[in-house]
Design a protein that fits this description.
This protein is mainly β. The protein has one domain: Jelly Rolls. It is about 5% helix and about 40% strand. It has a 6-stranded antiparallel beta sheet. A 4-stranded antiparallel beta sheet has the order 4-11-12-13, with no helix packed on it. A hairpin with a 2-residue loop joins β6 and β7. The longest helix has 4 residues. The chain starts with 10 loop residues before the first strand and ends in a 7-residue tail after the last strand.
């Protein structure tokens, strides 16, 4: 198995969320380690969240499991049950179909790094718990999108 050079892995940053929902996530950055390894059944990404940056809006997935592991820093995990502090070595998992919106927020003064692992399912869809937005299926085929909860487009 070839070693993955994380510095050479494909990089991404920002968000595709429509305004104003994009604001807390605009400065997030990640490296697509799973893509660098040629993985197709699940994704693995190394995220860097600067102070004030969120991993996402609070959301849940219909068909995808998601797992996060904190490598460095301190983050606030926000779910329907409230807030928990996650520090280096802490982890959390979110089973597909569980309607418990989640996100990570960096409220500290230092950068945080997290490893995010999730399944890849083109039938996945879900909604954002705190805002009027849902995401539609087809993320991996390039047919994804965001809509209001009543189905109207952004």
């Amino acid at each position: 198995m070839p070693k993955i050079d994380k510095d050479a892995a494909p990089r991404s940053s920002g968000t595709r969320y429509p305004p104003p929902h994009d604001e807390p996530c605009k400065l997030r950055e990640w490296r697509r380690l799973g893509d660098a390894a040629g993985l197709t059944q699940f994704g693995v990404s190394l995220f860097r969240l600067a102070p004030g940056v969120w991993s996402s809006q609070r959301h849940w997935h219909s068909h995808e499991d998601e797992f996060v592991y904190v490598l460095t820093g301190e983050l606030v995990l926000v779910t329907d049950k409230g807030e928990d502090i996650l520090r280096a070595g802490d982890c959390a998992g979110f089973p597909a179909g569980q309607r418990d919106g989640h996100c990570l927020q960096n409220r500290s003064t230092d950068d945080a790094e997290i490893l995010v692992v999730g399944s890849r399912n083109d039938e996945d869809h879900g909604e954002y718990s705190d805002i009027d937005m849902v995401f539609t299926s087809g993320r991996y085929s390039g047919k994804s999108g965001y809509r209001h909860k009543d189905g109207s487009p952004y």
